[in-house]
Design goal:
mainly beta, Beta-galactosidase, Chain A, domain 5, 8-stranded antiparallel sheet, globular
């Protein structure tokens, strides 16, 4: 049954009330037609609850727009949902990502997720390519997908909206990594599920790193919004030390937009529940609205919190990651960088959930808080304990 408009509805009952079930929920393929977004294909999902989001086919099948009952959830940057043909990953010394990043989800990877890095290229056995340069957050997030299918699937009286596609990152005398992504939501719910599979289709031993850059904007993010998470330890903060309190913004309570704000990044060690899941929420008590990211601890052992509160840039990032925030060299030194041989595969599961109403929010917050006491202070002591990452 589909729960719509306060009651359980059968497929037959819904069909009796309209000429097309897309009146209530559905998915459609559209193409943007103007400015830097011209030519970008996207799939528009409507779950029937007031939740609407778009999957950007030509931008890694990432989620661009996201709103609930007219209230924005995903972040829109001034870069727009730029056509990938205009994107320059090598630009500005590797910071080209900043001229294209926008949306609720921007994927980082498939072989780089953090700041710029240069490494030896001998694993690709090509003499002229002595080094490999990696830009910020890698290349995959602005790469078009091959759309393999989408639609509405009924199973009895339950309807699932879904799409699937393949995104390839490849180079001659270089990597050949393939991302297969499936996005789905059950009609009548506020729960978006993403299943990713990354496979090495090439015959070089290839490094792999992965990150979900999940960006929440106003009005969920607002002055007084709260970061709720099973924080067992605050591992690292890029602004810690003598200037830890300089900007007057801690990790728990969000401020209004600031002038002259410099981004702050934290890494937290999160506790998982009995199912191995880590849940992180941003809660707006005034609106009785929250957004939650759920990831598997065994797939994403690390979690970052990105605070970008400069006026006109205002967003909070909730970022599950395969590696510690110090980046590629740190991972290699500790033998924590993933290496994929031909045919090797990694799977990643994440759930995005909108919670509406103080009771629903309180239940989920209580469940998270029962796992571990979250530090109450805004500026908890930073431990520097980067726990070893053990791969399965």
């Amino acid at each position: 049954m589909v729960e719509l408009y306060g009651s359980q509805r059968s497929r037959r009952d819904l069909a009796a009330h309209t000429g097309s079930l897309t009146q209530f929920a559905g998915i459609r393929l559209v193409t943007l037609g103007d400015g830097v977004e011209r030519g970008v294909r996207m799939l528009e999902f409507r779950s029937g609850t007031g939740l609407r989001f778009t999957v950007m086919v030509d931008r890694c099948l990432d989620i661009g727009e996201c709103e609930y009952r007219g209230m924005a959830i995903g972040w829109h940057s001034n870069a727009g949902f730029k056509n990938p043909g205009l994107h320059d990953p090598e630009g500005e010394g590797g910071l080209g990502w900043l001229r294209s990043a926008s949306g609720l989800l921007v994927t980082g990877g498939l072989d780089q997720i953090l700041f710029m890095n240069e490494e030896a290229g001998d694993h690709y056995v090509y003499g002229p390519r002595k080094t490999i340069n990696h830009g910020l957050h890698g290349r995959i997030g602005m790469t078009p997908a091959k759309l393999t299918g989408y639609g509405e699937r009924w199973s009895g009286d339950e309807m699932v909206l879904w799409c699937e596609g393949v995104v390839t990152q490849g180079a001659v005398f270089g990597e050949h990594l393939e991302l297969t992504r499936r996005v789905e939501i059950r009609a009548g719910t506020n729960e978006i599920r993403i299943v990713d599979k990354v496979v090495n289709r090439g015959f070089y031993r290839t490094p792999h790193m992965y990150l979900y850059h999940v960006n929440v904007g106003h009005p969920v993010l607002a002055e007084g919004s709260r970061y709720v998470a099973p924080v067992a330890d605050v591992v690292w903060a890029g602004h810690a030390g003598e200037n830890y309190r300089k900007q007057g913004v801690g990790y728990r309570t969000m401020p209004a937009p600031q002038m002259g704000f410099h981004e702050q990044v934290w890494q937290h060690e999160m506790a998982a529940d009995a199912n191995g899941d880590v849940s992180v929420m941003l809660v707006n008590d005034a609106l009785e609205l929250a957004f939650e990211v759920v990831n598997r601890k065994d797939q994403f052992p690390c979690n970052y919190q990105w605070q970008n509160f400069h006026a006109g840039q205002y967003t909070l990032g909730m970022e599950p990651s395969t590696n510690h925030v110090q980046g590629r060299d740190f991972a290699k030194e500790r033998d924590e960088l993933i290496w994929l041989e031909h045919g090797d595969e990694r799977r990643y599961d994440v759930t995005f959930r909108v919670l509406a109403g103080k009771d629903e929010i309180a239940r989920e917050e209580g469940r998270i808080r029962a796992l571990v006491p979250q530090p109450e202070e805004e500026y908890p002591e930073v431990s520097g304990r980067h726990l070893p990452i053990h791969r399965v």
